[in-house]
Protein: Putative hydrolase (HD superfamily)
Amino acid sequence: MSEMYTKERARVLLEEWTKGESLRKHGLAVSICTESYGRLEAERLGMSGVEAESFVEAYACAGLLHDMDYERHPSLEEHPFVGVTFLRGQGWPEEVLHAILAHADYSGTPRETHLDKALFACDELAGFLTACSLVKPTKSVLDVEVKGVLKKMKDKAFARAVLREDITGGAALLGLSVEEHVENCLRAMQTHAAELGLGGSSTE
Structure:
């Protein structure tokens, strides 16, 4: 990824396009989870140094930008197409744009790369983990446990807007069990708990 296309720039764009705090936090949570998979993949591929950082940056940016147009353009006809058109005009790398398109089932864009699969896998799960955090007395992701998340996934009344099949399907795309996928994303979000506003009532 070029020096022009950074997490910092992606964050600025997300905040320019999205005024709602919860959607901004969602973009950040998805970015954190997706970036963690980028790091695992870079390691698997034997990358290090600048090469690894550039590789991982694409994952982080795709997470931050995947819903950047949703607040302004929530319809199936416009999201994520309006955002991708804007980003393409700005010269963002095609790998990032492809992943953003592929995260939406109805876009017709197949999930081909590891980045495509990771973004799709993390989108719904990041939202679900946030919901699991907010029902804790402390409102902290640090108090969420994998077994509790798996139990809540079976409760159809809890966070009913979250598509469970996208979480399970995403795990399968990455060659992981649902438990492993939940653990990976939960650990990533716990590492950034304060940044996500999920550090608990005592640290807010």
Observations:
- The mean pLDDT is 95.
- The CA atoms of residues 5 and 91 lie 9 Å apart.
- The chain is about 60% helix and 0% strand.
- The first helix runs from residue 7 to 17.
